[in-house]
Specification:
Chains A, B: Belongs to the sulfatase family. 2 copies of one chain form a homodimer. Chain A has 513 residues and is an alpha/beta fold. Chain A has 10 helices and 21 strands.
């Protein structure tokens, strides 16, 4: 495998703003709520039977649901980025907060970063003016005595560590981190609401295993522990929208709710729901990459609407292909021509952005642009979605080694020739689904049909263009080194939490896919 | 098998009314909208990704969603009742319209009857004052020249036949029957709205294969042909609610929307969606028996609420067990102590009704009564649902003979030891799911857990009580005879559509299960 993780630039391209839609002379505020491993089917408004997300459901009623929005990868980074990862976001990538700064935006990140944790990669070096959160996910990889626990930062200084100072009882699923992240988001809004345009990226990670919620949410969900995390995040959504209303900036703020990939289905109590979709996180089936999407902007986005625009939260992990993908907004390493469009700034002209400005779909949900979205697993182009069609060039469910450990990305699902336990090459005869008719990818379109023949024609064309124009990014996450772990984050001295740094010994990381 | 279809009395027991909740001195009107093979997941408000049911979604926003409402059987009658079936609804069963007549209600049925088609079984002999529709489903069994096509009745006279006078183009899925059924329902409301209380059972069958919609709906759905049927039915829901509003009786009318079983999954374009649930019609998994449920009564039922009350549309197909089941309302052969409660009439005292009056859950959605619901396939008790738990005593997916014909009740699903291709007895060690945590029945609760042990204790008790008190009904659908087919329905003379009746030759029907 040439580079397990591709260049990061492509992931920087997202966001939704539209200057023409804004009625105010000031460019709109942007709040992006990015969940971690929350599934499409976890929202009441997307059919979760227990309906435990009243704030999200109300947000959807007041805004727009994007039904066909894909993540750029079926997992978060797209390789998760543990503490011993050397690389991170390169300086020459222009992130959304850097773009928005041209128009006077103040940008805040609350929650998980995950774009590299060495000092040069941290949020305040990449356009954010404020940060409260952690560079890595709370799942660790370590919560022990031999290696450092994940630090929590306030701006550029560590203010403690998970499991030590910021407690997570991972056995019982209890932590007040979501409460802290919600409070920090509301405080950011309180500070910034009347000062100028702001961008807030709220990226709590309570729905990533081991899931957690505050003590007061224990036992409050019919869905168990995972549901408690969802309920607290839903309450956080309500608190953030309330803060916007309280400052009367709701009519000048675009709020986007989404997730970084499909729900992980490997365990019942630590994973969410992908609704009617096939499989979950790690896979390129609908359950792995179709994300919840709600866009809210009272007075601008028409209430109670749906767009079926096929879109991607980001551009693809392999870039740059101008025609590749329609894009919205999205992940924590966000910027976008769409964002730029809204704020009235130009994206840099020295690079190709393969995303599209789709803001018009927000104000005119019935509009649809026909664009292919390319679905990757690692470096491999697995499938293409375009219009109602989805074509699998390769299929792969759970690696045998994982299955043997009792891990299953597709529990309960078995579609012959599709949920294959090994990477299976279908490029000679791709498998076609109409995922509007068949969102569960259960009924392959017959190879003999006209639809199939036309789809293959289309596919060949767009894949050829994609591959010809593709310039694979520089891999950033290939090298690991124990020495880069959080032994001595800035601020550790004051806390007396500095640890001795071991000898540097870089090695090629071994990423599972 | 002793009697493939059990006595009908039990299915007569449903409906939801509550006298105390009515603010008017006149008892409330009742409209029950009963779909045919429409799945839980076919509604936008239940997460169908294409969101093509704006009227149902609005009805849900203005009313209450019942998330855990079961049908009495995983198919419609619970055996489908073709034309050669001799039996039907016995005279001593008291149907909802007969009960309501005591309070001056006028009752109308628009759509499919399916309670027997010989003259003595037809709707006007069993309490309905008006009927426009057919005694059998439009799927036939016959649309040919050798046996009679299904007649369509207006009150007690045939006014034509499917495929001859009432056209259904089953190859292209085109028919205006839903439009006719909607018009007839609206006309019934127009006639009755200002005359006294009325009961309307609207039972169109366009979502039963072969599905159909009016010409003007062709090509209007992202979901294909099935979606066109849903869209037209959704428009019908809107037209009916509009008629209630126009006559200003919406505040004195309970409207219930539900279906007769889960969506049939045997084909992509002729079947619907069961959302996150396992399998479909014919099975006792959630996909086979969890039905959509919306209750609408402006001013009485609180808007935008959900009840998780475990309930059954009807009492069980094997009766009478007083404690057996919480019940709502439902099918075309409807009556109920709940209905009686609302209208202020007593159910007959000479028989045991195994349903419960659950009307309080409509006005107080947070209330929940802990009652087991027993899930049967044919005569066999397959599973029990109580609270969040569901216990499978037997499992059975698709019979091998059907699989060999390419028919699959569980396409894409494979839960080891659960979606068994033959009836599999688990009574020695039942399989337990928490279907609130795990609506897809994918993660069996460990046999070693406390939850499991407690559930088995509970199960043994309720099953024992159920079986002790159970008095199996008299089978009504065992005998078949070509002579009882629709050769000469009343009214055929005027239409010149009478056919010669063959010699009577009764035989035991052979029902697939």
């Amino acid at each position: 495998m040439k580079g397990v993780v591709l260049g990061l630039r492509a992931w920087l391209v997202a966001g939704v703003l539209i200057a023409t839609a804004s009625t105010s002379s000031q460019p709109p505020n942007v709040v992006i709520m990015l969940m971690d491993d929350m599934g499409w089917g976890d929202l009441g408004c997307n059919g979760e039977p227990n309906r435990e997300t009243p704030n999200l459901d109300q947000m959807a009623r007041e805004g727009l649901i994007a039904s066909s929005m894909y993540t750029a990868a079926p997992l978060c980074s797209p390789s998760y980025t543990p503490q011993n990862m050397v690389g991170g976001i390169p300086d020459d990538e222009v992130l959304l907060p850097e773009l928005l700064a041209q128009k006077g935006y103040t940008s805040g990140l609350v929650g998980k970063w995950h774009l590299g944790h060495q000092p040069q990669y941290l949020p305040l070096k990449h356009g954010f003016d404020f940060w409260f959160g952690a560079p890595n996910c709370h799942f660790g990889p370590y919560a022990d005595l031999l290696t450092p626990n994940i630090p929590v930062f306030l701006n550029d200084s560590m203010v403690g560590r998970y499991y030590e100072d910021f407690h997570i009882d991972k056995n019982n699923g209890v932590s007040n981190m979501t409460q802290l992240f919600t409070d920090a988001a509301v405080e950011f809004i309180n500070r910034e609401a009347n000062r100028g345009p702001f961008f807030l990226l709220w990226a709590p990670d309570a729905t990533h295993a081991p899931t957690y919620a505050s003590e007061k949410y224990r036992g409050t969900s019919r869905r168990g522990r995972y549901g408690e995390a969802v309920r607290e995040l839903d309450a956080g959504v309500g608190a953030i929208l309330d803060a916007l209303r309280a400052h009367q900036v709701d009519n000048n703020t675009l709020v986007v709710f989404t997730s970084d990939n499909g729900a992980a289905l490997v365990s019942k109590y630590n994973g969410g729901s992908n609704g009617p979709f096939l499989c979950g996180k790690q896979t390129t089936f609908e359950g792995g990459m179709r994300a919840p999407g709600i866009f809210w902007w009272p007075g601008v986005i028409p209430a109670g609407t749906t767009t079926h625009q096929v879109s991607s939260e980001n551009t693809q992990p392999s870039q740059p292909y101008e025609e590749a993908v329609a894009e919205w907004c999205g992940r924590r390493w966000i910027c976008s021509r769409t964002a730029a469009q809204l704020a009235g700034v130009q994206t840099p002209q020295d690079r190709i952005y393969d995303g599209l400005a789709l803001a018009k779909s927000l104000t005119h949900p019935q509009l649809e642009v026909q664009r292919p979205v390319f679905l990757y697993r690692g470096n491999r182009l697995m499938a293409v979605r375009r219009g109602p069609l989805k074509i699998h060039l390769w299929t792969f469910s759970t690696p045998t080694a994982e299955l043997q450990k009792g891990i299953n990305f597709c529990p309960g699902a078995e579609v012959p020739n599709v949920t294959t336990p090994t990477p299976t090459n279908h490029t000679a005869r791709p498998i076609l689904f109409n995922v509007e008719v068949d969102p569960g990818e259960r009924y392959p379109v017959s190879h003999l049909s006209r639809t199939y023949k036309d789809a293959i024609q289309m596919l060949k064309k767009v894949v050829k263009e994609h591959e010809e124009k593709l310039v694979p990014g520089e891999p950033q996450l290939n090298w690991c080194d124990q020495a880069v772990m959080h032994w001595r984050p800035h601020g550790c001295e004051a806390l007396k939490e500095c640890l001795p740094i071991p000898q540097s010994n870089p090695y090629l990381c071994d990423w599972p896919h």
